[in-house]
Design brief:
With 181 residues, this protein is an alpha/beta fold. The chain has helices at 8-23, 38-45, 58-71, 100-105, 107-113, 130-139; strands at residues 28-32, 50-54, 77-80, 91-97, 114-125, 143-150, 153-159.
Length: 181
């Protein structure tokens, strides 16, 4: 069933989000292509202070909002159709579980949303699609960390070097709740 977390790519991402959230407290998490909001909800349940889920499908955003409302969390999940880079390089974790084509097209925006020292998780593709996706994201200055597989599906983890500032003072992400202009 779509959106229930059972698809292998969602399970890969959910496990990786859970692990990263357990390793360190994350201030801001972005879920690109949030669908029903499963990954955003996991990050929020682990204490992320600012959680954004983006999607181009208004029906998916509606479902995600309904499910987030059921959680009863004190932290609001902002669910929107806004582009991933709307908030600037703010997110310590960005996760995108979408197809190869959109991942390639959104690479500049996804990378622009990632804070210095932040982690990027990508899934939604097969092992044969890994080399071109790695190349795209490495060309945007990210460092490949690892690949995980579940059945016929892959997950890639990248990190933005801590010295990559995108015009910000080094070492700290942009934390204002205001949208970047």
């Amino acid at each position: 069933m779509f959106g229930d977390g059972s698809h292998p790519t969602t399970r890969l991402c959910a496990g990786a989000v859970d692990l990263l959230c357990r390793q360190r407290k994350l201030g801001a998490v972005l879920d690109v292509g949030t669908g029903t909001g499963v990954l955003a909800r996991i990050a929020r349940a682990h204490g992320a202070e600012f959680v954004v889920g983006t999607d181009v499908d208004p029906l998916a955003l509606g479902w995600a909002q309904q499910l987030c409302d059921l959680d009863g969390s004190a932290v609001e999940a902002l669910l929107t159709a806004a582009p991933p880079d709307t908030w600037g390089p703010r997110f310590e974790l960005v996760v995108a579980n979408i197809l190869q084509g959109p991942l390639e097209q959104l690479a500049p925006q996804i990378c622009a949303a990632l804070a210095p020292g932040g982690d990027l998780l990508l899934s939604g593709f097969t092992p044969i699609q890994v080399p071109p996706l790695r190349l795209v994201y490495e060309r945007h200055g990210l460092r490949f960390v690892q690949e995980a597989r579940l059945g016929e599906w892959s997950l890639l983890r990248f990190q933005r070097p801590a010295s990559a500032t995108n015009g910000l003072p080094s070492g700290k992400p942009f934390w204002s709740d205001q949208q970047a202009t």
